[in-house]
Design goal:
This protein folds into two domains: 2-151, Leucine Aminopeptidase, subunit E, domain 1 (3-Layer(aba) Sandwich); 162-483, Aminopeptidase. It is 34% helix and 21% strand. The protein has 14 helices and 19 strands. It has helices at 31-39, 76-91, 110-123, 154-176, 184-195, 207-213, 216-222, 276-290, 336-351, 364-370, 382-395, 406-409, 428-437, 473-483; strands spanning 2-5, 15-20, 49-56, 59-67, 98-102, 144-148, 201-205, 230-237, 246-256, 296-306, 318-320, 326-328, 355-360, 375-379, 399-401, 419-420, 446-450, 456-457, 467-468. The strands form four sheets. Strands 7-8-10-9-13-17-14-15 form an eight-stranded mixed β-sheet, with helices on both faces. A six-stranded mixed β-sheet has the order 1-6-5-2-4-3, sandwiched between helices. Bound molecules: ligand BES, manganese (II) ion and zinc ion (ZN). Manganese (II) ion is lined by residues 256, 258, 333, 335.
Length: 485
């Protein structure tokens, strides 16, 4: 679906959807339709849609009003995104191929208009490739959205929004594709394709190189898989030469069976999205590379598949990480931290970061604590934590701060190695964070985002269909925009 900013209406008849603030109707709106909207209890709250028909040259023409909530709302930006998304959700599979989106009635600034268009673009992404029997009335029909009534300066905001949408779409695609399609090497190949011609540098390490570097933990997780593990770094030098980069690290377990500590069968298919942290990092990088962000940034992704096998690691095995610290593996299903500890160590050694932020679908306990509303944020630096919380609020990729501390840290001491890879029954998300903390160098500001509850949704949302939410890409883009540019 393409979005075209235009001053002139298309000549053919097309559905018109007008964005309106709460309690208002478009100037010159057909009074019968206005009455109909009222009778349907349309109030103009954010995302509410009323559709009616009017006769035009003896033909029925669709007309819609889409609520944007109150003009003075604190959530104005999110409400505008929601309105843009709602208009698209209504017409994406409606049979209409063209839609006129009228922005002239809600008193929008260029930035506001950009928010509506971002919501529209994000909500239009769908993955129907494998649904070969989809009946034509369920297929995507909408091809072009003609945007009228936007302030002239909207072009730049739309360009920015389009860059963000590109990133979020990459995240959604990587998360949505099943594990027979997205595995470590194909994840790398998809990124090579997505970043071709952008000026970003891709660094790829295979198993031999990682073995040379001593990444026994990451390689241990991938040991039971037929797929070769990969470490991918995407580097963007858009800032001043010599400025230390912001480094984002993602957990990219392309499928998590649990390994020998195998997971129960029901719901195991969800573990195709256990690479959501890496997906967020790839998408975040694509967003900021696409808009040529003036900052030095690196995205590092540890890509492995966790399988049970004759070669797989066993409970009780001791692994030596690249940092030299040893780990007793008590549960092969606590694999994300094993992948991240080597990726985090390598990232710090290689890029000397100003700050490191990791993203991972790390623990089921995080979903128990925060549900699907917030990712959990753990940090050794209050200023960094506050910046991430602010970026989360701005983008609606929400985070909530969780504690760390020495009392939790001692829960992962091991009698045979430097640490074990699980704590006890309680505070499972925190002991996972403590594990990662042991691989952060003194003085490096670090934050860990446990996004297990955020990557996938069993219902459609303002900016996504049922399935991949695209969480994290926008957060990364915003964090860089606000703090590194
Ligand atoms: N990938 C899972 C965490 C997860 C669970 C993400 C559900 C999304 C939805 C992770 O690798 C895992 O298996 N964690 C274990 C840790 C436990 C063995 C200490 C868990 O949460 O049960
Ligand atoms: Mn696991
Ligand atoms: Zn996992």
């Amino acid at each position: 679906m393409q979005i075209v900013l235009t001053q002139a209406l298309p000549t053919q008849a097309a559905t018109v959807a007008t964005i309106v603030n709460q309690g208002t109707m478009p100037d010159g709106f057909d009074p019968v339709l206005a009455e109909g909207a009222k009778a349907s209890r349309f109030k103009g709250t954010a995302g509410q849609v009323f559709e009616g028909f009017t006769s035009s040259d003896g033909k029925a023409a669709r007309v819609a009003v889409v609520g944007a909530g109150e003009a003075s709302s604190d959530s104005r930006r999110h409400n505008l995104e929601r309105a843009g998304g709602a208009a698209i959700a209504k017409y994406l599979r409606s049979g209409e191929t063209e839609l006129i989106l009228d922005l002239s009635q809600a008193g929008l600034s260029a930035e506001d208009a950009g928010a509506v268009l971002l919501g529209a673009k994000l909500r239009s992404w769908a993955h129907d490739e494998y649904r070969t029997k989809l009946t034509s009335d369920k297929k995507i029909s909408l091809e072009t959205v003609h945007v009228v009534g936007a302030p002239e300066a909207t072009d730049a905001d739309w360009e920015r929004a389009a860059a963000i949408a590109r990133g979020v779409e990459l995240t959604k695609k990587l998360v949505t594709e099943p594990a027979n399609i997205v595995y470590p090497q194909s994840f790398v190949a998809l990124c090579k394709e997505a970043f071709a011609g952008t000026g970003a540098e891709l660094i790829v390490l295979g198993e031999a190189e990682m073995a040379e570097l001593g990444m026994g933990a990451l390689l241990g997780v991938g040991q039971g898989s037929r797929r070769e593990s990969q470490l991918l770094a995407i580097r963007w030098n858009g800032g001043n030469e010599g400025d230390k980069p912001s480094v984002f690290v993602g957990k990219g377990v392309t499928f998590d069976t649990g390994g020998i500590s195998i997971k129960p069968a029901p719901g195991m298919e969800d573990m195709k999205w256990d690479m959501g942290g890496a997906g967020a990092v790839a998408g975040g990088m694509l967003a900021l590379v696409s808009r040529k962000a003036k900052a030095n940034v690196v995205g590092v992704m540890g890509l492995v598949e966790n399988m049970p096998d004759g070669d797989a690691i066993r409970p009780g095995d001791v692994l030596t990480t690249m940092s030299g610290q040893t780990v007793e593996v008590l549960n092969t299903d606590a694999e994300g931290r094993l992948v991240l500890c080597d990726a985090l160590h390598w990232a710090q050694e290689t890029f000397d970061p100003a700050q490191v932020v990791d993203f991972a679908t790390l623990t089921g306990a995080m979903i128990v604590a925060l549900g699907n509303e917030h990712g959990g944020l753990f940090a050794n630096d209050d200023a960094l934590a506050d910046k991430l919380l602010a970026s989360g609020k701005a983008t609606n990729d929400k985070l909530w701060r969780m504690p760390i501390g020495p009392a939790y840290d001692k829960l992962i001491n091991s009698p045979i190695a430097d640490m074990k890879n699980i704590g006890g029954r309680w505070a499972g998300s925190i002991t996972a964070a403590q594990f990662l903390h042991r691989f952060i160098k003194k003085g490096t500001p670090w934050a860990h985002c446990d996004i297990a509850g955020m990557v996938w949704s069993d219902k459609p949302g303002a900016t996504h269909e049922k399935g991949a939410t695209g969480y994290g890409a926008r957060l990364i883009d915003q964090f860089v925009a606000d703090n590194a540019e």
